[in-house]
TrEMBL record:
Lineage of producing organism: Bacteria, Bacillati, Bacillota, Clostridia, Lachnospirales
Functional pathway: Amino-acid biosynthesis; L-lysine biosynthesis via DAP pathway; (S)-tetrahydrodipicolinate from L-aspartate: step 4/4
Gene of this entry: dapB
Subcellular location(s) per record: Cytoplasm
Binding-site positions, (S)-2,3,4,5-tetrahydrodipicolinate: H144, G153, T154
Name listed for the protein in its UniProt record: 4-hydroxy-tetrahydrodipicolinate reductase
GO molecular function: 4-hydroxy-tetrahydrodipicolinate reductase; NAD binding; NADP binding; oxidoreductase activity, acting on CH or CH2 groups, NAD or NADP as acceptor
The organism of origin for this protein: Variimorphobacter saccharofermentans
Length: 251
């Protein structure tokens, strides 16, 4: 049985995770952490980790970047791992998370769906062939109108995966409105669309002379992310300290 503390339990993803875990015989949510106390849960909910003394095997985090340090301190004090799904973290926070992964196992992925993990590999393969052939690379992501961070963590992770193939020589271009110049070859354009209830779409566009190749992933429900997160929560306990990715679990 995997005992889970769910940070962000009263949010949209938190509620989907709670439903999935309730139907799972091998996992249970032993406590929730949420600054908002807007609903009644089937487990105790605390406003912060400081007020929580519940023992667990792992934390799942779908919340906000605020106070990520408090969660890391709690996990280190209990010697448990974190499945970190929150996006929009600053460079400084990412450095603190890396540092913590020397003491505890941390599974961090901006996108917990299997599909994005797969297309990341396809996109890297396409980049390898098409960048040399002169194709321009652009990423377009689309999400619901409640999403606060832009571009999405997944768009940035896709850009990083592409840039890895390109020896990290490309720059990210988020806004062209102030420019009056043609795009440079060594850039990856990243655009964000926000509207309605779009769950999550990521499209990588390779635009060449007279032809365009597009690789796209569409999430039709938040359950694809939640299932991946619960699977990661079962995978992590007992693992040595370190940083884990979707590929570690899938391999
Ligand atoms: N890695 C992945 O596959 C996915 C990641 N996400 C990310 O997960 C995060 C949450 O997404 P949603 O559930 O849609 O957002 P949401 O806004 O519906 O829920 C966030 C919840 O976290 C709570 N919260 C905010 N600050 C907190 C803090 N300091 N401590 C404890 N609770 C806090 C809020 O009160 C809220 O209930 C976002 O960063 C989003 O980008 C979302 C979907 C998939
Ligand atoms: O906020 C969301 O909803 C999502 N956020 C993640 C991201 O920023 O990449 C993943 C997913 O697309 C949904």
């Amino acid at each position: 049985m995997t005992n889970i503390i769910l940070r962000g339990c009263n949010g949209k993803m938190g509620q989907v995770i709670a439903d999935i875990v309730e139907a799972d015989d091998d996992a249970v949510i032993v406590a929730g952490i949420d600054v908002s106390q807007n609903r009644v849960a089937k487990f105790p909910v605390y406003q912060s980790f400081q007020k929580c003394n519940v023992k667990a095997d792992v934390i799942i985090d779908f919340s906000a970047p605020v106070n990520v340090e408090e969660m890391l301190d709690f996990a280190k004090s209990q010697g448990i791992g974190i499945v970190l799904c929150t996006t929009g973290l600053s460079k400084e926070q990412l450095a603190i998370i890396d540092e913590a992964s020397r003491e505890i196992p941390i599974f961090r992925s901006a996108n917990m769906s299997m599909g994005i993990n797969l297309i990341t590999k396809l996109v890297q393969e396409a980049t390898y062939i098409l960048a040399d052939a002169g194709y321009d690379i652009e990423i377009v992501e689309r999400h619901h109108n409640k999403k606060v961070d832009a571009p999405s963590g997944t768009a940035l992770a896709l850009a990083d995966a592409i840039n890895q193939v390109l020896n990290n020589e490309y720059e990210y271009k988020f806004d062209r409105s102030a420019d009056r110049v043609a795009r440079s070859k060594k850039e990856i354009g990243i655009s964000a669309v926000r509207g309605g209830t779009i769950v999550g779409e990521h499209e990588v566009i390779f635009a060449g002379t007279d032809e365009v190749i597009e690789i796209k992933h569409t999430a039709y429900s938040k359950a694809v992310f939640a299932k991946g997160a619960v699977q990661a929560a079962k995978f992590l306990p007992g693992k040595p300290a370190g940083m884990y990715r979707m590929s570690d679990m899938m391999d």
